[in-house]
UniProtKB/TrEMBL annotation:
Tetrahydrofolate dehydrogenase/cyclohydrolase NAD(P)-binding domain boundaries: 13-72
Gene3D superfamilies: NAD(P)-binding Rossmann-like Domain
Annotated organism of origin: Engystomops pustulosus
Protein name: Tetrahydrofolate dehydrogenase/cyclohydrolase NAD(P)-binding domain-containing protein
GO molecular function, one term: methylenetetrahydrofolate dehydrogenase (NADP+) activity
Matches recorded under InterPro entries: NAD(P)-bd_dom_sf, THF_DH/CycHdrlase_NAD-bd_dom
Pfam families documented for this protein: THF_DHG_CYH_C
Amino acid sequence: MIRSNAQDGFISPTATGIIELIEQIDQSSLEGKNVLIVGADASLEAPLQCLLQRKGAVSLVSPWQSQQLQNKVE
């Protein structure tokens, strides 16, 4: 959840943790990458998309039930 302006407001610690985990695993910048968010609810999806955008990534959202997840990341 983002409160107030995303630059100076409260951003979900869960979303922040996800970004930190991705950066630790990948060891490279998120800038220019496509990120697929699968099955997130709105309270996580919005702040995660905001943080990804601030890092220069493009995010796509899909429900768990999607039959063609692989096609979304190609």
